[in-house]
Amino acid sequence: MLFNSPVFIFIFLPFVLLVYFFLNKLKISLGKAWLVVVSLFFYGYWNIDYIILIIISILCNYGLGKFLIKLNNGTEKYTLLSKSILIKGIIFNLAILFYYKYTDFIITNVNYIFEVEISMLNLLLPLAISFFTFQQIAYLVDCYKSDALEYNFLNYCLFVTFFPQLIAGPIVHHKEMMPQFNKQINANVNHANLAKGLFIFAIGLFKKVIIADSFAQWANTGFSSATVLQFWDAWGASLSYTFQLYYDFSAYADMAIGVALMFNIVLPINFNSPYKALTIQDFWHRWHMTLSRWLRDYLYIPLGGNRKGAIRTYINVMLTFILGGLWHGAAWTFIVWGALHGLALCTQRLWTQVGFKLPSIISWLLTFTFISVSWIFFRAEDIPSALHIISGMLGVNGYNTSSILIAPGNTLITSPYIVSYLIIFGFSAFFSRNSMELSLNKIRYTIWDSLMVSAVFFLAILFGIATVDSEFLYFNF
Question: What is the pLDDT of residue 412?
Fold first, then answer.
């Protein structure tokens, strides 16, 4: 089930909200149990087999976490046994992730290198496995450090499965979300939160349906014709994907926060106008913020961070971003993408150490250009395809101004139409306030104000040019 599907918007979400707040009046635990059940239904809507895997993962991690809590007894007195349990728990989670996500990738490379023919397993990647795996690894580490003390199985199930953030994040800590469910004030309908949540959700829906899915038409056409793209088409395809990904992920982040807020739950901000970044480091403080936090806290710092000298710091940065790239997908293109960002961060660190500083406008332009070019590897089918597009952007294939970028149904999308979209929504990404700035702590909306504003977005979507049931890009990761 998709956030942008009519079934979710007009049936699932209203029904779940009504029953949840009704059950909360009887007993909060009933409301929690309801959310767990509907979240599992939401997760299994794509494929019922997914439910078995996530339940096994929940049962094992809850048991390991409870064992770690008892071993430490709520203190920071770590023992060899608790450390051993933590390591085994991390290995268990990574083994599941590795099996489903990377086995065929390894087989492909072994077959190529050693010229053998090992049969592919053709495993179906379980939805959201990367997200709930990282979230549960963080939970185990927090239990080991006594930062998470959860003895209630129902609470833990809700922590993992809460449907607004289950599929594509944000990756939350137990202490960020679960105490909110236990507050009596949050068990009742909050009209202000409903108003804000609906407003944020409507903005996200507009971004997805009207903006991201329109850019997707040109990006998909361009990347499928990578070998023949000339200068203008190559830039059109590259920038179309740059803004498709921006608005697609921004839409999901908005919609997740908006839906959670309707339940009186405040999720951490996961997207904060990243194309306004002046440096690569600033970009990663704004893009997929909870993943950046996870990589820093559970990979970069345990590797040694910047505490073991300059060379080791650069190695740790590169390892963190290469593995971060691999987390997004089992392909060499993702590894290259991660390595590029690692190199960019190392370069920025070196520049800072020698006192080199660019004017803000130059720094922003350089950062955005790098990000746009690196996204090509993120999107391309393989490295040669990515290099073909980059060659086209450099003019290697010529400068023909006749566009080959066409929409589904062979309807020609003229260059002025693409350019107008890039100008309008590029300007919005670069200069306008984001949905969090518009809705949280800035403007006070009543439920009627929110309904009126949201209605405008819904009407625009109904008369829009895109469909309302396309998947979000981060569902693939």
Answer: 43
Q: What is the pLDDT of residue 322?
A: 97
pLDDT of residue 61: 96
Same-domain check for residues 87 and 216: no
90 and 202 co-located in one domain: no
Per-residue confidence (pLDDT) for residue 388, from 0 to 100 = 95
On average, the pLDDT of the chain sits at 88
Please report where in the chains the tokens 């929409």 appear, as a residue: 407
Token reading at 191: 């009209």
Contacts of 208 (CB under 8 A, 6+ apart): 3, 4, 247, 248, 251, 252, 255, 470, 472
**310 and 226 housed in the same domain:** yes
Longest dimension (CA), the chain: 70
- The alpha helices in 300-434, defined as continuous H runs, are 301-303, 310-328, 332-353, 360-379, 383-393, 415-431
**Residues above pLDDT 90, as percent of the chain:** 61
Is 328 one of the annotated active-site residues of the chain? yes
- What tokens appear for 432 in the block? 């306008």
Q: Model pTM?
A: 0.91
Q: Are residues 315 and 257 in the same domain?
A: yes
Q: What is the pLDDT at residue 408?
A: 45
466-475 pLDDT per residue, tens: 455 678 888 7
Q: Which residue range is the domain that position 452 belongs to?
A: 193-476
Instruction: Say yes or no: 411 and 371 in one domain.
Output: yes
Q: Which residues pair with 411 in a beta bridge?
A: 407
CA distances from 271 to 292, 318, 442 (A): 11, 23, 17
Ranges in the chain, pLDDT < 50: 407-414, 465-466
Q: 172 near 165, Cβ under 8 Å?
A: yes
Counting the structural domains of the chain, the total is 2
In whole angstroms, what is the distance from residue 346 CA to residue 289 CA?
A: 19
Q: Compute the C-alpha angle 147/150/156, nearest 5°.
A: 120
Are residue 13 and residue 136 in the same domain, yes or no?
yes
Q: Which residue among 173, 174, 288, 328 is the active-site one?
A: 328
Which residues neighbour 224 within 8 Å (Cβ) at sequence distance 6 or greater? none
Residue 1 domain-assigned? no
Closest CA to 465 of 206, 273, 105, 167: 206
Nearest to 136 by CA among 294, 287, 257: 294
CB-CB contact of 341 with 280 (8 Å): yes
Say yes or no: 229 and 146 in one domain.
no
Residue 51 placed within a domain: yes
- Which residues is 31 bridged to in the sheet? none
